[in-house]
Structures are given as structure tokens and as C-alpha cells.
Design a protein that fits this description.
The longest helix is centred in the N-terminal third of the chain and has 22 residues. Helix 5 packs across helix 6 and helix 6 runs parallel beside helix 7. 46% of the residues lie in helices and 17% in strands. It is of the alpha/beta class. The chain contains ten helices and eight strands. The structure holds S-adenosylmethionine. S-adenosylmethionine binds next to helix 7.
């Protein structure tokens, strides 16, 4: 259940009184009016995505049988655990996109450094961390910004992540524009996997890629969620002349991947 109209306004105003949050909030409002769709319009973008997409479920079905079984077991566990945690929280925290892809790639690639934007209740964070635990290696750096429509939003960021997995986790909550430079400085080595699932605007994606790109490992994988929202992914692969990219259709939306994933 979302926060009611009046309390949502009250919480938003409370967040706006905090200068560090106000900067990010004002930026979001400005983007709503100034954000670009990119070089093609939304209908053309959807056509382009549909023409290039393959089904994520089919890609997952080709994985090694042992990994598929492990992944399914993890998914059942995550769903059960998340249900238990989230039923006691009276807000819809959203999230959870493309989790099987994140689990499989983390187990296959065994990345040392993973960076993600967009945590919410923490489905993707819990997934990366569980796969890293199985690998016995890796560190996750997560960037988020508290939902400002609910009271005490910080306490809900990553609630789904189990305490025993937090040793490999660094969580930053000041918004991508402040978090990502801090994460790039803090990371102990190049970023092997970057998952973008926060500010879905064109400018938000562009700013994040500009900060993270110089810190990516040579063979890094970049995963971008909800690429149907605007033509950023389309423009990125065209303008940077990137050859190795994929588009997956999954649960009615599209996920873009850059890098060699087979
Ligand atoms: C779709 S949810 C993330 C879902 C998460 N990856 C999962 O699998 O559960 C998007 C998150 O991005 C956060 N967000 C939005 N704009 C942001 C920004 N500018 N910087 C950092 N986080 C932001 C939202 O507050 C929200 O928590």
C-alpha cells in the first residue's frame, strides 16, 4: 500500500528539508520536464527492442543443469524470505527485476567488484550477495536514494538482504550523483559487473555511465534495466559503436546487456 496522499506529501516535505536530499529531489523534478527520449521516439525504441530481443527464460534454460537447479532453489528461498519480511511493511517498495540473470551471471563470471544502482527493498542486492557467497569471493557496492514519500525511508533500503550476507556489502544512500564517484574511489579494483536499476531517465543513465565507464574492467558486463523507458541503451550501443550487446525480454519489459555473455 502506498503512503496516503497527505502523509506522502508530509514525508516528501520532510525529505526536502534535508539539503543533501533536496539536491537530488530537485534534480528529479527538473529531469521530469527536461529529460530527452534520445535519437528515436518511444514507439521506434520499442520496435527496435522487439526486433533485437531474445527471451531471458530461453537464455536461462540453456545454462548448465546444476546452475539452473541452484538458481531455482535460490529463487524459491528469496521469494519465501522476502514475503516474510515485506508482509510486515505497509508500503510497496517495488523492485525485483531480472534477478535470475543477476544470479546466473554472478555465478558464471565470479566478479570481484560489482556495482549496482537502485536497491529499494534489496532483491537484486540479496541476489548478488547470495551468488558471491557461493563463489566465496566478491564485493557489492550499491547506490540508492531513499523513497521520499514514506516515513523513515532509510530503514527499508535493502530490508530483504539477510544479515549474514552483509559482510560483502557497501551501501551508499545519497543518490547516484554523489554515491557513484564515492564507490568508484572505494572499489578495490576495476568494476567487473555494473547493474543499473535506479533513475530511469535518459540523463540519469548518461550521468551514471559517464562516472562508471572509466572504472570498468576491460571485459566488464553492464546490465541496464527497463531500457524500454527511453532510447538511452539504443543510443549508447550505436554512438559508442559497441558490438557485443544483447536485449532480453523478461516479464513484459526489456533488459539491456553489454559484454560477452554467450
Ligand atoms: C526499481 S527500484 C530498484 C530495485 C532493485 N534493484 C531490486 O531488484 O529490488 C529503483 C530504486 O532506485 C532508487 N533511485 C531512484 N533515483 C535514484 C538516484 N538518483 N540515485 C540513487 N537511487 C535512486 C529508488 O529510490 C529505488 O529504491
Amino acid at each position: 500500500m502506498p503512503a496516503s496522499g497527505l502523509s506522502s506529501w508530509r514525508n516528501t516535505l520532510k525529505s526536502a528539508m534535508d539539503p543533501s536530499k533536496a539536491r537530488v529531489m530537485i534534480g528529479k523534478v527538473i529531469k521530469r520536464f527536461t529529460d530527452t527520449q534520445g535519437t528515436i521516439d518511444p514507439a521506434q525504441n520499442k520496435q527496435w527492442l522487439a526486433a533485437h530481443a531474445r527471451s531471458l527464460d530461453e537464455w536461462l534454460a540453456k545454462l548448465d543443469g546444476g546452475l539452473q537447479a541452484e538458481m531455482k532453489e535460490f529463487m524459491v528461498h528469496l521469494k519465501h524470505h522476502a514475503n516474510n519480511v515485506l508482509t510486515s511493511i505497509p508500503y510497496d517498495l517495488g523492485g525485483g527485476g531480472g534477478v535470475p540473470l543477476l544470479y546466473a551471471l554472478t555465478r558464471i563470471l565470479k566478479p570481484d567488484n560489482v556495482v549496482e544502482t537502485g536497491v529499494a527493498s534489496g532483491f537484486s542486492s540479496a541476489t548478488f550477495l547470495a551468488a558471491m557467497e557461493k563463489n566465496g569471493s566478491g564485493h557489492l557496492y550499491s547506490s540508492d536514494f531513499p523513497y521520499f514519500r514514506i516515513p523513515d525511508p532509510e530503514k527499508y533500503i535493502g530490508v530483504v538482504v539477510e544479515p549474514q550476507l552483509k559482510g560483502r556489502w557497501s551501501l551508499y544512500v545519497k543518490g547516484d550523483s554523489a554515491n557513484l564517484p564515492a564507490i568508484v574511489s572505494a572499489a578495490k579494483g576495476p568494476i567487473d559487473l555494473f547493474h543499473y536499476d535506479s533513475d530511469k531517465s535518459y540523463d540519469g543513465r548518461l550521468q551514471a555511465m559517464d562516472i562508471v565507464a572509466p572504472a570498468l574492467a576491460y571485459e566488464a558486463i553492464v546490465i541496464m534495466d527497463d531500457i524500454q523507458d527511453n532510447a538511452f541503451f539504443h543510443d549508447l550501443v550505436a554512438q559508442k559503436d559497441i558490438k557485443n550487446w544483447s536485449v532480453f525480454s523478461y516479464e513484459g519489459k526489456y533488459i539491456g546487456v553489454i559484454g560477452d555473455i554467450g
